[in-house]
Specification:
The protein has nine helices and nine strands. By secondary structure, the protein is of the alpha+beta class. It has a three-stranded antiparallel β-sheet with strand order 7-9-8, covered by helices on one side. Strands 1-2 form a two-stranded antiparallel sheet. The chain has a two-stranded parallel ribbon with strand order 3-4. The longest helix is centred in the C-terminal third of the chain and has 18 residues.
């Protein structure tokens, strides 16, 4: 992608400033690209760019920086692209797929635009499975994996960037204007080391506590890491104080039964 992406963008008429295009076989993702977009943000401001595009080492993720040097949330990017596709009659069934990690504000925004959101487990392969199951053509993870099923059957950062650039050009607006269609709801995330991975459904009192949180309008995600002895906790809601207080209670509960 360090060769292909600049060539494509230049041939389409863009003035391209290239960063971190000197791979040596061991510097993959080294303080650059989608995983570390800070330098890109600085360069966009320094060179007064209209947009910054970051790919990761295997080029399947896209991270975007607007003309102010501000990194765009993956969920905002997904929402903007979904509405763009729908408005151009390119969105199959007016439905998209994201993972359980996507912010509830994205779902609420899409529903206001008459677009349904289906959720999968974490992982772009899981997004693709739901897309296949429902014959859909657009799915994404907030981390930057974006799948345009009409173009490619997997995440492709360059293909996603081209779709985004088409939207930017057609809109005639600044990147910051079109890629901030809604505000994200506050989230609290915690990762705790656990001694054992007791099945969540067997932890007495957990479902009761989570049901209480849901009654307060919170969304929860509790899952074990697939590679480490950790449990990952996420709470999300419209009121940051309620979110943080509830997370404190959840952490205290988990420490009491697993840590």
């Amino acid at each position: 992608a360090y060769k292909v992406a600049p060539t494509i963008f230049e041939e389409l008429g863009a003035d391209v400033i290239i960063l971190n295009n000197k791979p040596n076989g061991i510097n993959i993702n080294e303080n650059c690209g989608a995983l570390y977009p800070t330098r890109l943000s600085s360069a966009v401001k320094e060179f007064r760019g209209d947009i910054g595009i970051a790919l990761d080492g295997d080029a399947d993720r896209l991270v975007v920086v607007d003309e102010r040097g501000v990194q765009i949330s993956g969920d905002k990017l997904i929402g903007a692209l979904a509405v763009y596709l729908r408005d151009n009659k390119l969105l199959a069934k007016n439905q998209i797929v994201t993972t359980v990690m996507s912010n509830q504000a994205l779902q609420d925004y899409l529903e206001s635009k008459k677009i349904s959101l289906l959720r999968s487990d974490v992982g772009d392969k899981n997004v693709l499975e739901i897309m296949k199951e429902h014959n859909l053509n657009f799915g994404a993870e907030e981390s930057g994996h974006i799948i345009f099923n009409d173009i490619t059957k997997t995440g492709d950062g360059i293909a996603a960037a081209l779709q985004l650039l088409a939207y930017v050009v057609k809109s005639g607006k600044k990147t910051s204007e079109i890629l901030n269609p809604f505000e994200l709801y506050p989230q609290a995330k915690k990762n705790l080391i656990v001694q054992n991975k007791t099945p969540l459904q067997k932890i007495e009192g957990l479902e009761k506590l989570l049901s209480e949180f849901r009654g307060q309008g919170l969304r929860d995600l509790v899952r074990y890491s697939g590679t480490e002895n950790k449990i990952r906790l996420l709470l999300e809601g419209k009121d940051i104080k309620t979110v943080n207080q509830s997370m404190d209670r959840l952490v205290e509960f988990i420490k009491g039964v697993l840590c």
